[in-house]
Amino acid sequence: MTRNHRVFLIRHGETEWSLSGQHTGVTDIPLTDNGRRVARRLARIMRKVPFAVVLVSPLSRARQTCELAGFGDRAEVDRDLMEWNYGAYEGLTSKQIHTRAPAWVLFEDGCPGGETPDAISERVDRVIARVQSVDGNVALFAHGHVFRVFVARWIGLPASAGRHFLLDTAAVSVLGYYGDYPAVKRWNAVVKLPAA
Question: Catalytic residue at 83?
Fold first, then answer.
């Protein structure tokens, strides 16, 4: 295992449900026009970094972001990068969920009929093991909540610590090492379009 490589977490671009605050797990919805424009802008940033491996969630919003960023021909689909399965809470906003379950916290409670924090932690741990075996930089294109669990597990915290890492659409985060210790190099660097 090399300690010099970096892991780039690229959250997909904007969707209609990310704009409305609806929980979008397994529902496969496309990027908005703005989401596609920002994803194309990612290509300018990402092309400067040599990647040994590019992995992408099978959901179209992540795949579109990956393709528009210039990595569609190199990316390998990894089902472990799917977004959290929200079960009965799919498509609902946090406000709507809290009317049903006022004390609900995704990272502690999971979702009825969906995934538990332990289940998503197991998926993320498999991706981390895979990434750590790569000799070179890795790019991952996926989703907000799965990446928030990813960063927590990367630095040795439980999945529940993901609540402390907010992540916007079209954000690039970079993980690496401080000596032999897994570390966060950059978090939630949002890609923006130039002013008109």
Answer: yes
Pick the catalytic residue from 67, 83, 90, 115: 83
pTM of the model: 0.95
**Domain total for the chain?**
1
**CA distances (Å), 116 to each of 8, 108, 109, 112, 126, in order?**
25, 8, 7, 9, 16
Q: Kindly state whether residue 196 falls inside one of the protein's structural domains.
A: no
Task: Note whether residue 2 is domain-resident.
Answer: no
Contact yes or no for 131/7 (Cβ under 8 A) = yes
State the catalytic residue, choosing from 5, 12, 23, 145.
12
Domain CATH number, residue 134: 3.40.50.1240
Task: Please check whether residue 77 lies inside any domain of the structure.
Answer: yes
Tens-digit pLDDT profile for residues 55-86 = 999 999 999 999 999 999 999 999 999 999 99
SS3 content of the chain, % helix, strand, coil (to 5): 40, 20, 40
pLDDT tens for 5-26 read 899 999 999 999 999 999 999 9
